[in-house]
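Lab channel / #folding
Pinned by the channel admin:
"Please post every new chain as: sequence first, then the C-alpha cells as a reply. Keep commentary short and put observations after the output so the thread stays searchable."

First post following the new format, from NK:
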Amino acid sequence: MTEKALRLGTRRSKLAMAQSGQVAQAVRRVTGRPVELVEITTYGDTSREHLAQIGGTGVFVTALRDALLRGEVDLAVHSLKDLPTTQPDELVLAAVPVREDPRDVIVARDALKFTDLPRGARIGTGSPRRMAQLNAYARAHGLDIETVPIRGNVDTRIGYVHAGELDAVVLAAAGLNRIGRSDEVTDFLSVDTVLPAPGQGALAIECRAGNTTHDAALVAALGELDDPYTRAAVTAERSLLAALEAGCSAPVGALADLRPLSAPLERGAQAEKQIVKEMRLRGVVGTTDGTRMVQLSTTGPVPRTHERASALGRELATEMLAQGAAGLMGERAR
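Reply from TO:
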C-alpha cells in the first residue's frame, strides 16, 4: 500500500512555491513518502499596507502555523527571516537547510551598478533595514539617492524598473536564485555595504512538536535536512534581533559569518573540506534616513549548542543597546 502523502503548507507566491517545491523533493528523499503542496494565503499576502505599517512580524507565518496546529498540513516551509523570534511550544523547527546566498542585490535600469546610479536615483525597497543602510552608505560616499517604499512580488518590483518608475530595486539574492532569475541582477551588495536581515537566505521547515508517533518520526526524518552551521548562524542572528526587541520589519541587519565557509559567500568544494573554527556576528541598526547608525561585531568559537549561539546574539545586542540602538528603531516591538 502506498504511504499517505505528507502535506506541506506553503504561501502561494511564485517564490514560496519554488522554494517549497525544492524542500518537497528533499523531504521525499529523506522520508520516502510522496509530498503534496498545500497553498495557504497569509495576511501578508493579501494586505496592501507596507510591512513596516502592519508590523512585519508573523504576517506571512500565522496562517501556516494555524494550519499546522489544526492538523491540515504536516509541515510548513517559511523564509526564516519572516519568522517571529519566539517559537511556540507546540511547534518545532525540525530543519534549517543549507543557506542560500544571504546578500541583497540591485536590479537596475541599463545594467547599472549601485555606485553608478545617476544623481537623485530612485531606489525601491519595502525594507526599513535596506533604506537605512543604503542611505547611510550614500551619505558617506557622496551619492545622491532617494529610497522609495514599495510592496509586491518579484515581478511587480522589477516591473517598476522596466516601466521607468524607478531606477533600481533591492531584492534578496536567495529569492532570485530560487526562482531562476539571478541573471537579472545588475549588482551584488557587499555585506560590508548592506547587512542582510537576520536569517536572510535560510529556510525553516516547521512541524508539530513530537506529541504523537507520527509527529516524532517526521521530526526525526526532517532532522537529516538540517545544516548545523546554518542553524548556528541564524540562531545567533535571530537572538540579536530578539534581544533588541525588534520585529522582522525593524531596521536591523545581522549576519553571522562562518569562516572559511563565508570566504566566498557561496560554499565552494574546497571550503567544505576546511575546518570552521570561528564565527563572526555583525549587527547594525539605523534610522531609515541613514543619519544615525550603530554597527558592531563580535567573533568567537563556532557555537556548538543553541544556547551558546543565542548567547552570542544577546551579548552583541547588549553592546548595541549600550550605544543607543534602541532609540534608532522607532517603535520597538512588544
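NK: The chain has eleven helices and 13 strands.
TO: also worth noting, Residues 14-31 form the longest helix (18 residues).
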